[in-house]
Write a structure and sequence with these properties.
- This protein has 314 residues and is an alpha/beta fold.
- 27% of the residues lie in helices and 29% in strands.
- It has a 9-stranded mixed sheet, sandwiched between helices. A two-stranded antiparallel ribbon has the order 10-11.
- Strand 7 and strand 8 form a beta hairpin.
- The radius of gyration is 37 Å and the shape is elongated.
- The protein starts with 9 loop residues before the first helix and ends with a helix.
């Protein structure tokens, strides 16, 4: 049986609380691993990915002989390192004759492999090869824009999966509001063919345009590379259903007969019961009835008075 050890010191308790599930999760940490053999190009790619995510990434430089993605039993070490470092994203680089400059991006759920995408790196250009004004260099931790150009990201399963993984890898913490002045970078992904994507990182320069919306200029700051999709594995249906669950605290209760409109705002519907006027009883002494009786009485008195006069004259 496994022994459950409870934290005894304050520091250990704080670390356990950080790793505990939260209603609103913070940004995902990324773990960078090396395979048995890596090329110089792949080492540079892994280093620059680490620099792009330096505020929320962990990098291991030791070679890992027992990590073999897409093979049974070859992902155990990845799950162990994910649990050890509390990272939900893993970038694994390896180089072989069959698959040169190979990069595997894995997502985990509850520190178990959720899905995998394997890409090959071609036409790589590092940050050093780009010359630009250093004032335009993006700040660490800033929120990026994403531009996915091409119909392949909507039609092809491989590119749709790659799009989801790249968004998870580089977007950082999910926020609801953004300051426009703090946006200083954009990732541009262009679908060149059915399995090739051109990926580049650009700095964002805001200029005056004579209106409220500023004019934007892109300055390529690197890295830049071609991503060739080789293999990918989608999550299992049961695991996907478990991962997509939403906490009850975050689900809003549906308001009956209430809708929202962009122009009119919040609109409510009121249902009135049928007014059956014919069945409603009238009061016994209505003003109209009183007036009719009074008039009838006055007519009756005048008739009696005239009859009495006629009798007295007779």
């Amino acid at each position: 049986m496994l022994q459950i050890r409870t934290p005894k010191t304050g520091r250990a308790k704080r670390e356990v609380e950080k790793r505990a599930p939260k209603i609103v999760e913070t940004g995902k940490k990324t773990l960078i691993l090396h395979g048995t053999k890596t090329s110089q190009v792949l080492n540079t790619v892994l280093t620059e990915i680490y620099h792009l995510k330096k505020d929320n990434a962990v990098k291991y430089t030791r070679r890992n002989d027992n990590i073999r993605p897409f093979e049974s039993g070859g992902e155990t070490s990845m799950e162990f390192y994910s649990l050890k470092t509390d990272c939900s994203l893993i970038v694994f680089g390896s180089h072989s004759k069959k698959r040169p400059d190979n990069l595997v991006i894995a997502r985990t759920y509850d520190h178990h492999i959720y899905d995998l995408v394997e890409v090959g790196i071609e036409n790589f250009k590092s940050m050093v090869s780009f010359s630009y004004d250093k004032k335009l260099a993006p700040q660490i931790g800033s929120k990026p824009f994403f531009a996915f150009i091409g119909e392949g990201f909507e039609n092809l399963e491989e590119l749709k999966h790659l799009k989801e993984v790249l968004l998870d890898l580089f977007r950082g913490e999910v926020v609801t509001n953004l300051n426009l002045a703090g946006l200083d970078r954009v990732y541009v992904c262009t679908a060149v063919s059915s399995n090739r994507v051109f990926f580049t990182h650009c700095g964002l320069r805001l200029k005056k345009s004579g209106s409220v919306v500023p004019r934007m200029e892109l300055v390529e700051v690197g890295p830049s590379m071609d991503l060739v999709v080789r293999r990918h594995r989608l999550p299992e249906d049961g695991l996907k259903k478990e991962a997509m669950k939403i906490a009850p605290e975050l689900t809003k209760k549906k308001e009956k007969n209430v809708s929202k409109d962009a122009i009119e705002g919040k609109i409510g519907k009121i249902y009135m019961p049928d007014q059956q006027v014919g069945i409603v009883p009238l009061p016994n002494k209505a003003k109209g009835v009183k007036r009719e009786r009074r008039e009838a009485k006055m007519k009756g008195d005048t008739k009696k008075h005239e009859a009495k006069k006629q009798k007295l004259e007779a």
